[in-house]
Write a structure and sequence with these properties.
single chain; four-stranded antiparallel β-sheet; alpha+beta; 9% strand; 21 helices
Length: 710
């Protein structure tokens, strides 16, 4: 019965989404307000039906009802105190649930927009909702038409006892997913993915309706920023999970699925900056539509990669032909719709994209867009290169991480330099004297911070580099393949210089805004800072986000370019020591085995960590957990964090000769990554705060109401 109810709701949701699209788009074209109003009601109905689908899966997880095969495969078999939360996260732990979650979230976005715009039912919003419902219908079709995507496939009778319990214990959720970061990472990512659907839908609506004013941007730019917040949170949480759970001591491996989230993040940066220019200055019109379209395409590309078998990935699902064709079709249709609409409306554009000088805010925004789009396209091309024909550049080749790093460093550094300089430039043209005056304080303060980084570079990082290269092996090869030492060091110096300048310029702009309020309003400095964020959230939030990026950039330089890594085979007899960098690890002796309530074996290795002077830094016990149901191993690393670096220690198991394999990494400045990500997310969140309606939008609303009354 549960499977039948879920399948019925999915089929109804598909039909209702198609009906809503017809009513909304058809009603606008035929000028039939009653038809449009019906479409709005159907948008709500579609969201309710998909909510019902999510509720059924959730209820089955919470009640341990195994009548659905999806529950059998993803129920969390654990005695953890977090089990109730894992039961919730099990809803999206598998391919079927994650696709259902994504589809549901798009429908929720549509329902929220419909609720906010139903008082006006303006043509742009109605058409955008129609486009969104077409996308919802296509996503729902992948659930309905593919058994491997359908979360409501019943469990085969031979696997169930008469009372509904399983004949044999379920393997359940992957133990690697049972972590607090994985409770939050997937929904945050999918909230971001679903959110970028609306800017694309509004861009298509503008082309369909022929309304190429800034109205469509006014109606969706907060949604774009909101989605960007969650894209950023999702990436940060994924990095945290990879760092503390997977046991390899890193947070970004240039895996295809990781890259997929980066594509859309980069193009979202271009989209948000373009929206700002479109809304405030009437330019970047084509850029805005292009950025909204390619961001949506890249989001779908990520799903296409994981479900088509196009690229091998540790995160990829089994290949599914229905998903392959549907998601490929969505990408192609989105691109064609944009191109056809652009050609059709070409003569109606009154674009103001001319840039008088590249040394201006306009020019800087333009360069930012170029850098972000080119970076995203390059990353996408490198990711799918292994599946491309051999006659294409890099076709048929699997691209190693070093190549991605070689691309990311110049792209990321140039982007951050633009962020540091852009706010100091003038619109259209920049007066040299004014620019020099604006940059004086940030440049001097930045030089001081940069000198501090250079001391760290000379005393810490250069010796690490020389030691790793002299030792040879894979890590030395990873360093030297990036180029000779002077080239490698040059990127380090440029990265620290850029981070220093971006940090001080962002802090200076926040301070200048606060000082202006102190001077003009007579407010105390703390109150002035609070009111700056209250009354100018977009501007102040943007500067705060830039500040977070500067902190993270410094962290990335250290934690990706100067890592010390060693793997030891030790007997772990009492007082046996291992030296790595400035640390001495003393083993307490042997291993300690224990079993949890689900018979999973946990084997831990106790050790005490000292610095070179003999000062004790702490006791750690890295462990390995072996699942009783699947024999899968989960490494629970131990980390000692200091302001300048992390000592990361993972127990990788017992060798054939009885020795223990211990993996140790020293990750410099990695704490700055997490701090920077948090500050950046806070800044973006402030920038997303509601603002007063612009005169253009307010006038439109008044005109709409007058027309209704007339």
């Amino acid at each position: 019965m549960i499977a039948m109810a879920g399948n019925a709701l999915q089929v109804l949701a598909l039909a209702v989404a198609l009906a809503a699209a017809v009513c909304l788009i058809g009603g606008v074209k035929l000028r039939r307000e009653g038809l449009v109003n019906t479409g709005y009601l159907l948008v709500f109905a579609n969201a309710l039906m998909l909510t019902g689908c999510i509720a059924i899966i959730l209820a089955c997880m919470l009640s341990e009802n195994y009548s659905l095969a999806y529950v059998v495969s993803n129920y969390p078999v654990t005695d953890s105190p977090l089990k109730p939360l894992y039961e919730v996260s099990a809803v999206w732990a598998g391919r079927q649930g994650s696709l259902l979650l994504w589809t549901w979230l798009i429908s929720v976005y549509a329902a929220v927009v419909a609720w906010k715009r139903m008082h006006a039912t303006d043509d742009l919003s109605s058409t955008a909702l129609g486009v969104t419902e077409v996308i919802v219908a296509l996503f729902t079709a992948t659930l309905v038409l593919s058994e491997s995507n359908n979360p409501f496939m019943p469990t085969a009778a031979e696997y169930l006892n008469a009372d509904g319990t399983l004949v044999s214990p379920a393997s359940g959720m992957n133990p690697l997913l049972m972590h607090w970061a994985m409770i939050l990472h997937p929904p945050a990512t999918f909230i971001g993915y679903a959110g970028v659907t609306l800017p694309f839908a509004y861009a298509m609506a503008a082309l369909i309706c022929g309304d190429l004013s800034a109205r469509w941007v006014e109606l969706c730019d907060r949604l774009a920023v909101f989605a960007f917040i969650f894209l950023t949170i999702g990436m940060a949480l994924g990095a945290v999970w990879a760092y503390v759970v997977l046991g390899w001591g890193g947070f970004w491996a240039w895996d295809a699925v990781e890259n997929a989230s980066l594509f859309s993040w980069l193009t979202s940066v271009a989209m948000i900056h373009s929206f700002t220019m479109y809304r405030k200055h009437g330019c970047f019109k084509k850029w805005s539509m292009f950025a909204a379209t390619i961001t949506f395409i890249f989001v779908v590309l990520g799903t296409f990669i994981t479900r088509s078998g196009l690229v091998q990935s540790v995160h990829a699902f089994a290949e599914d032909p229905v998903s392959t064709y549907f998601f490929l079709g969505i990408m192609v249709l989105a691109g064609l719709a944009f191109l056809i609409g652009l050609v059709h409306r070409h003569g109606t554009y009154e674009d103001d994209d001319q840039i008088e000088s590249m040394v201006s805010k306009n020019g800087s925004y333009y360069l930012t867009n170029i850098v972000m789009i080119v970076g995203a396209v390059l990353c996408a091309y490198l990711t799918i290169s292994s599946s491309l024909p051999s006659f294409l550049p890099l076709g048929g080749q699997v691209i190693p991480a070093g190549v991605y790093n070689a691309v990311a460093r110049p792209v990321g550094t140039l982007f951050c330099l633009l962020m540091a300089v852009c706010p100091m430039l003038g619109w259209r043209k920049t007066d040299g004297a004014s620019f020099a005056r604006n940059m004086r304080v940030p440049a001097i303060a930045g030089a001081v911070i940069f000198c501090g980084f250079m001391v760290l570079f000379v005393t810490k990082f250069v010796p690490v580099y020389n030691e790793v290269v002299a030792a040879g092996g894979d890590q030395a090869a990873a360093y030297t393949e990036q180029g000779p030492a002077p080239y490698y060091f040059a990127w380090t110096i440029l990265g620290f210089f850029t981070a220093s300048l971006l940090f001080t310029s962002s802090l200076y702009l926040l301070g200048r805004g606060m000082s202006a309020r102190v001077r003009n309003k007579g407010e105390a400095a703390p109150l002035a800072l609070v009111n700056l964020f209250r009354h100018s959230p977009a501007q102040a939030g943007g500067y705060l986000a830039h500040l977070g990026v500067a902190i993270a950039l410094a962290g990335l330089v250290g934690s990706t370019m100067y890592v010390t890594e060693r793997t030891f085979d030790v007997s772990a007899t009492p007082n046996e020591t291992v030296e790595v960098g400035d640390y001495v690890l003393t083993f307490d002796g042997g291993t300690e085995d224990s079993f949890d309530a689900t018979d999973n074996m946990i084997r831990a290795v106790g050790m005490t960590v000292y610095d070179r002077s003999g000062r004790e830094l702490g006791h750690i016990a890295p462990s390995m957990e072996v699942s009783a149901a699947t024999s899968q191993q989960t490494l629970n690393a131990a980390v000692i964090t200091t302001p300048l670096e992390d000592l990361f220690v993972a127990f990788q198991g017992v060798n054939a000769d009885g020795s223990l394999s211990i993996h140790v990494k020293i990750n410099p400045l990695i704490l700055l990554n997490w701090i920077g990500a948090g500050v950046a997310v806070a800044g973006i969140a402030f920038a997303c705060l509601p603002r007063r309606a612009t005169p253009l939008l307010a006038a439109d609303e008044r005109a709409r109401e007058e027309a209704r009354r007339g």
